[in-house]
Amino acid sequence: MNTPPLDTHTGAIALEDGDVPAILFDKVEKRFGDHVVLHDLDFTVRRGDRVTLIGPSGSGKTTILRLVMTLEEADDGYILIDGSPLTHFERDGKRVELKEKHKNEMRKRIGMVFQQFNLFPNMTVIENIIEAPVHVLGLSKQEALARGRALLDKVGLPDKENAHPTQLSGGQQQRVAIARALAMEPEILLLDEVTSALDPEVVGEVLNILRDVARDTDVTMLIVTHEMQFARDVSNRVLMFDSGRIVEEGTPEAIFSDPQEQRTRDFLSAVL
Amino acid sequence: MNDDKSIWSWDHALAVLPDLLWTFLTVTLIVTIIGSAIAAVLGLIIALGRRTSPRPVAGALTLVMNFIRMTPLVVQLLFAYYVFTTVPPIVLGTVIIGIHYATYMAEVYRAGIDAVPPGQWEATTALSMSPARTWTAVIIPQALRATLPALANYVISMFKDTPFLMVITVTELVREAQLYGGTNFRYVEAITLAGLIFLAASLLSSVLARRLEKKLEYTTA
Amino acid sequence: MTENLDALWRALPQIWDGVFITLVLTAGGALLAIVVAIALGLLARFENILLRGFARTIIELFRGTSLLVQLFFFFFVLPLPPFNLELPALFTGILALGLNYGAYGAEVVRGSINAVPAGQWEATTALSMSRSQRMRRVIFPQAWALMIPSLNNLLIQLLKGTAVVYLITIVDLTAELNRLRVQTDVFFAYTLGLLVYFAIAYLLTLGMNALESRAKHRLGQGVKWRDAIAGTPPVPDMKGAGQAA
Q1: Is the four-CA dihedral C109, C111, C113, C116 of positive or negative sign?
Q2: B96 has a chain C CB within 8 A of its CB
Q3: Does residue A54 contact residue A267 with C-beta atoms inside 8 Å?
Q4: Contacts of residue A56, Cβ cutoff 8 Å, sequence gap at least 6
Q5: What CATH number is given for A48-73+107-271 in this structure?
Q6: Could you tell me the residue ranges of all domains in chain A?
Q7: Closest chain B C-alpha to A16 CA, distance in angstroms
Q8: Mean pLDDT computed over B82-98
Q9: Local structure of residue C88 (DSSP, 8 states)
Q10: What whole-number distance in Å separates Cα of residue C171 and Cα of residue C90?
Q11: Whole-angstrom distance, CA of residue A184 vs CA of residue A131
Q12: CA-based nearest distance B126→chain C, Å
């Protein structure tokens, strides 16, 4: 993938057709100790894309999501969100770290739903949902409550407003987690194996919510999942990863029905 | 009465009991309550300080904390007593015992904070929450749930350590008993009753502490 | 400063005596405490309600009353009827320290025995081991490794507790420090004292850490080695079984 050179002053970068990508990875490298997870990775996600990353565990898919969410920092290379650097940029040939204030601003545009839900057990459902809108986005409590209630309704839990997370089932907790992430109205939504920790019966209810989100909004989605049917329904692009590199990419139909690479074929035949 | 050679004298027991109870209420309890408050607050400050300071500061803080924690309270009390000669011993004693126990509490807080699952920290990052809000709204409330029972046990522990204050002339329960014994040459009743008062208070607070622990346990669906 | 150092030099023999007494109290107290802790810790687990009740009573009695209450009780009351026990002050100190911290230790012993994974108990039942065999050869060795950190904490507390025995006329390190304070000054005497106590506490902790690694190491080696030496029938290797839980 050829990316145009970085404009070092603004850090802005454009795609060939003039559009600015939602997410751009430029020669990103990530190591954990001696283990190199991502090496020289170039990767683009356009605005409104629904991209699913598939591949064996350890291939780096979750690391990509965690890098975008700034839960990890890349050891080399640059990540750009909507054309602006996320954590580092280049100045006079050197890799410079951005100030915390700028990172915070960038972070607000990105939301994530976790495999383990990570709801705050010391708060009620509605408190979980309005916490960030009130204290980070500066909404008034009424505005946040209105937004939160509407979202709770959308995820099918309107009567659970004052419940505690520990009183809910896994599927319900994950639906609340989705509502909590959407309450921030992010431009990019990251979904990290959001159904892997759920009982099979409730996987469906969560995926249906996400299908609705994909249908009713134009949020950019970056998804890591083993649910292949869901990936087919929702994505417009699928990327097959292995050992930190992109093995193959294409539309869901292309990848699932007629994979070109042997590695992709092996993986799909094992999981499907 | 001073020639009384009997093993137990109810007269003496009844004579000393009111003084013992009064001293218990005015000295032992007050020192424990205020000392615990100092320990709880200072301990949290130390724990947060160790966690959020740059390496050298955190290291120095840890060293001082361990030094206080591992050396005798008695020597610390004597040290303070002979340095701060104008401060009333009971105030000095309360502050020193508070500082001593703050070092225990700091370790308890640290364990509580470490026990908060990493996913909670990640969720606060995903929601772009500020560090202040992360600590006050998410981390500390969860850390406290785990630490409160241990803190309660240290309060009981401190209460049983209040007699150490007698080395700096504070007339707490044991000293009161000793003074009666010294004046009346009858130690048995005084010291036994002092012990029983301790025992009663200790057992009662243990029961309460256990109830608190049960109440704070999370139940999952 | 030089006057202080001179005074210290002159007082060194007494300081050393004080340190020695403190060490004797610590060692003696610790020895008594561990015996009491194991005895009461095991007794507290018996089904026999009398034995269990007895152990629990002693434990709660010594945990619930303060060290100083016990110290003064033993010092003032033991010589009187009905006990008529005249002990040297040093023994009184060791007695109080040993019983007080032994009672706390009993809880640690009891808790650690309970913490040994259920699978280990079940395995001994499946092998028809007797109760004492089970405790001696399987449960206690594993509980021992678990209890050492808590016992270390108690040991440090015991060391700190020795500093109060000068009130019943034992001339320990703190008593010597009080004397040194008069000859030098407050800061010098007590800072020195705190450093000495800290050094002793640190060395004790190192010792306990070594004990802990040895205990864990012995668990890793399994029971076979000891069987070979003792000549008793071999017990199947339980190395993997304990790691569940």
Answers
A1: negative
A2: no
A3: yes
A4: A242, A267
A5: 3.40.50.300
A6: 48-73+107-271
A7: 31
A8: 93
A9: -
A10: 9
A11: 10
A12: 33
